[in-house]
Every structure is written in structure tokens, then in C-alpha cells.
């Protein structure tokens, strides 16, 4: 699975443009996710030297990202959306804020894929109508 992860406020405490202290269990969790075969994408507002500093900081802590601010290595961003093609986004700007790395680990390692979402039906953005026969026998 491709997982897009924000830097400031998610991997490290928010101290932009400086680099904050690592969030508890951030690097341990990301390393384990990589061991499971997940592709981690750094998806951050940073660019230029602050971005290079963030990537270097992560590399110093044992994380080499599959891609940085792109869906895959070498993607040309010219004329396309900056939104990353990923199945999961981990970010402190979620409604309700950052869940914490232990909760991220718990959700990503649940037995059922539906557990990736707090409200799976809301993620689908529609309600399936029951067929005529299901309404009768259903």
C-alpha cells in the first residue's frame, strides 16, 4: 500500500521551518510499515532547503522514502495536481488532529481493511440502495 505522510506535526513536532523533535513512535512505526512492504511517500509543504533538511533528517533516522512530494520517483509535476496518489494519508491536519503513531499502527494492522477508516460508509460517500428483493427478504 502507498502511504503519504506529512512531516511537520506528524513525523516531527511542528517547528517549521526548523525541524522539531521526532513524534513518539514515528520512526519505529514507519520502519515497521516499510518492513511490511508499504511504500512511504513524504508529502509535505516544504520545498527547497527545508525539504532537503527534512529528507536528510528522516534518512539519519533510518527512513528512505519511496518518493518525496510526488506519487512515484521521478514523476513530472508539470501541469498536474500536487495531490499524491496514495491509499492512506497520515497528517496532523486531519479533522480531529493527528491520532498518534500507536493509533496509526493499530488501524493499519487491523484484520479487516474497513478498519482503516473510522466510518467506512462515509468514506464510500454513498449509501447503497437495497434491491427490491432485499427490501422484501432482507
UniProtKB/TrEMBL annotation:
**InterPro entries, from UniProt?**
HAD-like_sf, HAD_sf, Phage_SP01_Orf1
Gene3D superfamilies tied to this protein: HAD superfamily/HAD-like
Q: What is this protein called?
A: Hydrolase
Amino acid at each position: 500500500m502507498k502511504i503519504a505522510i506529512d512531516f511537520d506535526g506528524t513525523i516531527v513536532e511542528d517547528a517549521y521551518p526548523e525541524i522539531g523533535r521526532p513524534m513518539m513512535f514515528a520512526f519505529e512505526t514507519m520502519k515497521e510499515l516499510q518492513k511490511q512492504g508499504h511504500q512511504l511517500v513524504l508529502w509535505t509543504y516544504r520545498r527547497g532547503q527545508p525539504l532537503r533538511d527534512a529528507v536528510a533528517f528522516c534518512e539519519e533516522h533510518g527512513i528512505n522514502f519511496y518518493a518525496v512530494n510526488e506519487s512515484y520517483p521521478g514523476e513530472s509535476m508539470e501541469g498536474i495536481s500536487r495531490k499524491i496518489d496514495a491509499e492512506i494519508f497520515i497528517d496532523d491536519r486531519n479533522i480531529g488532529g493527528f491520532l498518534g503513531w500507536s493509533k496509526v499502527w493499530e488501524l493499519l494492522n487491523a484484520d479487516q481493511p474497513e478498519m482503516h477508516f473510522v466510518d467506512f460508509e462515509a468514506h464510500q460517500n454513498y449509501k447503497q440502495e437495497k434491491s427490491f428483493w432485499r427490501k422484501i427478504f432482507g
